[in-house]
Structure formats: C-alpha cells, structure tokens
Write a structure and sequence with these properties.
Helix content is about 80%, strand content about 0%. The protein has about 350 residues and is mainly α. The chain has one domain. Helix 2 packs across helix 12 and helix 12 (about 315-335) packs across helix 13 (about 340-345). It is globular and about 70 Å long.
Length: about 350
C-alpha cells in the first residue's frame, strides 16, 4: 500500500499546490501583472543585447555595456512611442465619438442593403432591439478609459524593469549565498541563464515582428484615409504575441475599427485582404524562418497555456502564455522529479535542444 500510495500522494499534493498557486495568481493579478511584464521587458532587453552581438563584423566588437545601453534605449523609446500613440488614440476617440456613432449606423444600414433587407434599421430601432445595451460613444469612452489605465501600467512596468536591470548584476552572488550546496547553486544559475537566453531571444524577435506588423497595419489604414490607424497598429502588434488567435484578430480588429470609422465596402475588403496576406506571410514564412521551434513547445500545451492564463489574467495573461509555458519547460527539465512533465510539454519529447 505504501509503495502505491506515495505517487498518488505526490500527485494529490501537486494538484493542491497548483490550485493554490492559481488562486493566489488570480487574486493578486493587479499586483503581479506589472511585475510579470517588467520581467519580460528585461528579457527583451537581454535578447536584443544578444542579437546585437550576432551582427556580422560589428557585433562582437561592441562592448557589452554599449549593447545594453542601445537595447535599453531602444526599448524605452518604443515604450514612450506607445504611450504617445495611446494618448493620441484617446484624444481621437473622445473628439470623434459622436461621428463614429453615426458611422456605425451607416455601416449597419449598408450591411442591411447588402443582405437584401427591405427595411433598413434606424438607430432607435437598433437600440430597442439590443435593449439599450449598445452605445458606440459609451463603448469608445470605456475603451479610452482602459487605454488611459494602460499608460499608468506602462509607467509602472518601466520603473520595475529599470530596477530589475540594476539588480541583474547581483543575481549570481545572491544565488551563491542562498544555496549552501555549490551544485544546487550551479543548477539554479543554469536554469536562469537558459531562461534568459531562450525566452529573451524569442521575445526580442517576436517584438520585432510585432512592430513590423503594426507598422504595416498603420500604413495601410493611413494610406486609405481611415481613422484609428495608430490604434489599429498598436492592437495588431500586441495581438501578434497571442498564438494562433492573434493572426485572426489581427485582421478582424482593424476591419472592425475601419467599419466604425465609416469605411465603404470596397475599402474594407481591400484592407482585410491586404492584412490577411501580411498575417499569412508572417505566420507561415517570416516567423518560422526567424524563430523556428525555438521554444520546443507542444501546440496543445500552447493552447492550454493560452486558455489557462486568459482565465487567470484576461488579455494580459494571453499575451504572456507562451513565455510562461517556455519557462515551465526549462525549469521542469532541470530536475529529475519533474523531467517527465518537461517531456510532455515539449513538442517532440526531445529536451537536449533546450539545454
């Protein structure tokens, strides 16, 4: 009985611990989300630093301090640009909410005409059908309020990231003093360095692709004279971090914003076609070429992680799902007791490539 009870007891304890951790993560999400994003921002800086070192000819000759300075400056400039873009989008929403209300009604009436509905609905009729729950100005106002909260969160994330970068030098010394066993200290350093290397490189390249997709979206909508071009580019860039679903939303969200902004049928069609081509090229050619299967994660694990973190932290959790799954894989593979879990999380069962 004892021999069979020990694995079962371990399984029960593991499930109970996972439930407890999930409960704490859910309750403390407002505090932990900025910390998680600041940590990943540090990983982006570290990943960019390593990518700079790989530049042929010039990279190896650049001092490490200069590479860190360039990477950190680029990230801070990007965060500042995002903040300005969010503030500009808020101003656009608040200044034109009434006009977008009328544009939404016109879009619905055009859709009614396309569908062959004889009597086009009026705005009062639509309000009655939806029980007064739909109000474009109210929805846009809520969006503006949410975006204003994003600006505050970005400020906090940058502040945390700065202090984490300052603390980075002392991490190895802290590990040596925390672990009395030199072998355990070495293993902890190996895990941390593996996370820094693989997650940092993934995030740096993913950020580059997200910026490119966001810029393409902004350029396409601006060239067509559509509103919300900056907001659409920002949202598409963020959605690119979400696996599988992000590609679909990267076309649907700009299309919806263009529709609210008063785009006609042909403009909307060409916009969606162009963005679909961009998403296809990114998802099937550029992304696999640059990153391949660098994280060695099972597609099912990615989807499960996406569902779990979305349930815990909402959209912020969905953006963090893949890096968190990769961190679990790296940690699990370093210890004999959890190595079978790492095999299950991996894409093909082979872990040597992740070391």
């Amino acid at each position: 009985m004892t021999e069979h009870g020990s694995p079962l007891q371990t399984l029960v304890h593991g499930i109970a611990l996972a439930v407890l951790i999930g409960w704490v993560l859910y309750l403390a999400r407002d505090v932990l989300v900025p910390v998680a994003y600041s940590t990943l921002l540090v990983y982006v800086v570290l990943g960019m630093t390593r990518q700079l070192a790989r530049i042929p000819g010039l990279g190896p000759r650049l001092p490490a301090a200069l590479r860190y300075a360039v990477s950190a400056t680029a990230i801070l400039a990007a965060v500042w640009g995002l903040t300005m873009l969010v503030l500009a989008s808020i101003a656009e929403i608040t200044d034109n909410a009434g006009r977008y209300d009328g544009a939404t009604l016109a879009a619905i009436q055009r859709a009614a005409g396309w569908l062959g509905i004889e009597t086009e609905p009026s705005w009062p009729q639509l309000r009655k059908m939806l029980f007064d729950r739909v109000s474009v100005p109210h929805l846009l106002g809520s969006t503006a309020g949410t975006m204003l909260g994003v600006v505050g969160t970005l400020t906090l994330v940058v502040l945390y990231a700065v202090f984490l970068l300052i603390e980075k030098r002392a991490i190895d010394r802290k590990i040596d003093r925390l672990a009395t066993d030199p072998e355990r200290a070495r293993r902890l350093r190996t895990v941390i360095h593996a996370i820094n290397d693989r997650v940092g490189n993934y995030l740096a390249l993913k950020t580059l692709l997200s910026v490119v997709l966001g810029a393409i979206t902004w350029a396409a909508m601006a060239a067509m004279g559509l509103g919300f071009a900056g907001l659409a580019g920002l949202l598409v860039g963020l959605l690119n971090y979400i696996p599988y679903v992000g590609s679909v939303l990267g076309v649907a969200v700009p299309g919806l914003l263009a529709l609210v902004g008063g785009a006609d049928g042909s403009t909307l069609l060409w916009l969606c076609l162009g963005l679909s081509v961009a998403q296809f090229v990114n998802g099937h050619i550029v992304d696999p070429f640059l990153m391949g299967n660098s994280l060695n994660l099972s597609p099912f694990v990615i989807l499960f992680s996406l569902a779990a973190w979305s349930a815990l932290w909402g959209i912020p959790g969905a953006l963090l799902a893949v890096p968190f799954a990769a961190i679990l894989l790296i940690v699990f593979q370093e210890f004999d007791g959890t190595r079978p879990l790492a095999v299950l999380l991996s894409r093909d069962g082979r872990l040597d490539a992740t070391r």
